[in-house]
Known about the structure:
Strand content: 15-25%
Structural class: alpha/beta
Amino acid sequence: xxxxxxxxxxxxxxxxxxxxxxxxxxxxxxxxxxxxxxxxxxxxxxxxxxxxxxxxxxxxxxxxxxxxxxxxxxxxxxxxxxxxxxxxxxxxxxxxxxxxxxxxxxxxxxxxxxxxxxxxxxxxxxxxxxxxxxxxxxxxxxxxxxxxxxxxxxxxxxxxxxxxxxxxxxx
Length: 171
């Protein structure tokens, strides 16, 4: 068994309970411009979906205030099914507006985020600042799954015996 080694696990390590802000920092949306102006056309949004490998953009007005989300689902339901030219349609005409958006606070836990996304049957959470109600980020359902998986692996290691086995390339 030369490909597996026995490694002591440090029990002094504390359980990491991620907040929505922590999850956003690991998200695919963290390093890109995830905002689009409401007056831009749908074609521009679709190009950004493909270029950044994302499926949603936050829609903002001219004063940089959040007004909604535009997602691949919105494109399919409201643009592709209408047979209109996507370059002729403005984002504000087809985006999902604020009352129908799920909002997460920066301090929400992973469980809170999962609960919110599940209850509304949506794929994205908008991370909003509590004080000035500005958008701080987007979190996708994939980000939540990834974080939940990491938490599960960490818990499993905590509940294991003093030693656990890993493949030599994993540590």
